[in-house]
Amino acid sequence: MRGPCGSPSYTRKMIKYKWWQPLLYLTPMGVVLLFVYGYPLVRVFDFSTRRIRGASGPFIGLDNFRFVLRNPVFHDAVRHNLFLLVGVPILVILALIFASLLFEQPRGWKFYRFSLFLPYILAVPVVGVVFSYLLMLNGALNEILRAVRLDVFALDWLGSPKIALKSVLAIIIWKEMGFGIVLFFARLMSVSEEIYDAAKIDGANWWQTLWFITIPQLKIVIEFFAIVTIINLLSWVFAYVYVISRGGPGTSTQVIELWIFNKVAHGAPNPGMGAAASVMLFAVTIVLIFTLLKLRLSVGEDE
Amino acid sequence: MKKARFVLLVGFALLLVFSFSFLFAGKGEKAGGGKAEGPVELVFWWWGEQEAVGLEVWLNETVTLFEAEYPNIKIETVLQATENVIDDFTTASAAGTPPDLQYLWNGIYHMENVWLGYIEPLDDWIPADELEDMWASDLSFYEGKQYRAGWYLLPMGWAYNKKLFKDAGIPADMTPPEDLDEWWQVCELLKQQGITPIGAGFKDGFWGEWYTGHGLVQNEDHVSDTTKLVVGEYSWQDPRWHEHWVILENAIKAGYFNEDANSLDLYPGIDLIKTGDAAMVQTILTLIPDIESYLGAENVGIMPMPKFGRGKLAGKPVVDVQGVGISSQSKHKKEAAEFIRFMHRPDRSTALWEQVHVFPANKNWKGEDYVRDANSLEQWKWFTGDNTGYIPNMIAWTFDAEIMYTAPQILMAGETTAAEIAANADDVMERWREENPDLLESHKKWAGVD
Fold it and tell me: What is the ipTM score, two decimals?
């Protein structure tokens, strides 16, 4: 029996194998994965309970966790990571709007699609360095604002502790939005046109179409994008902050990853504390992922 | 079919086993390569091109000459980035694969590796009189042993634009300003002429560390006072120990700094003097030739930070020494030491000055015989005369990150006061002492403040 393209068409029942054979085939890759991911993870947990000097150090129980939790700079870092989560709804809404506009396929829509996706494929350090120059007090953005007599808006975007984190967030949104747009757009392309035609016949306007058709159709993709973005903003913003502001001015853009880096780098002042913070970040991320997955499953069951 | 699958499975398993055995066999071979058969290969991780432009050419030439004289020794030099020059050595040492020779910043930057046992004392490998002439500072000693040889000298100070001073009508007796009153008058006169008195970049934090090096020392009678602040014998909240931040706060409030200091990194801040956008900058003086190339040598002057403190070290020029050491795990310590000695030969010392325009860390090299230009002669006097060390080299790095780097930034933003920074400094050091009791003890032994 052959399949539609001439390839053998197997069914599950036709393939006979012992129960342990798939496991055996998977074992080599499993061993590699365990070594690549498992070993470092075990070492991080081990480090978190030691006063690390060089490759190891004396066991000090949970002291590193206590030291981390009382550290005011770490508190700032956690607060800033939580603030960055404001970016999740902003990213979702903007990506949704742009994807819907692109879906209308206006004149030159391929160019717009390319332009909107372009920031996403740029390397974070490149984006960081360019924006560092653009957003200087006497940088290009402020020069333009001054030239058009909008001096009042020519702020010290990265030099003022009051707005530096917001500036960093704006850069992250600009860069990451392309991913959401492409995800949403790809999903929209697979939605049956008949639904939209029916909505048109019923007299639905653009907003009603967005609200009653597009968003429900995109629900799963939106959820996926939101989860990925939450994880990114909690534990994937190091490159932005390191390149753009190094956590300053003061501690105004300090984030958890940078705090960890500062504990393990620069002559390794206290890798044990860095490891303890990493364990906490890992735990929070895992809890978050499982909660969201569980939520997703329960929603799926309801449906 | 079953048989074919079985053969495939066995073949795959064998492939895996062979791959792993090759992997480990290769490692064993490399370890065996450490035996004294055949030529000796030394690895040297170094840094310094940023502050001593041309050092790479000098080093390559030195290696070539050395290899010609010692045909059985080959040296591989690896230029390291600023971010990982020390970290990588620590990590490699922990993993048992450090280089034989390592570039070492002064003080705590190499001393923590000494305490971990990663750096070899040089006393057993280099004759005492030669080692003494290699100009490592006191900060390279621990429990009577010397762990680092100097490589090149690093004078640290301030540069000023003589032309802008003249344009602002600053009297000759205040060029350069020698004390705080004169400095304030100079800044005020410059500001009145629309000239930014002090150019700086606070963003990456290093400016704040340099400033602490120039400012804090002014109220010290001895550099070990720094360690007393580290170990908690002194409090930063004592006005004597944060006067330098008060002065910085006042200077910022008076508008003596460029308004975009928080937007600029250290080196773009220094560049402001080159473009005539600032009259004074805090700098490493190895950059003076570059500044002179923009402004003309006749328009550039150098000075220590104007005197304001009441300590015995007040007003003294700040000098540092960059150096080199040998890994305690090197299998070729004798050869590595031989290369360090070669680096300090008279001809190589002179070449270092002529090619790189930095002073060699060689007490037998007489700068007076070679140095001709006024600014370099002045710097040479700093080394041969009364001077003081760069004291941030004695403070745990946590303090750099949490206090020294950030103090100018938050003062510039108007978000704090010098007194609040001092209170925070005490908190940071107190936490550091509790978190690192072993390092605290080592600090005490190092500075002899037990």
Answer: 0.86
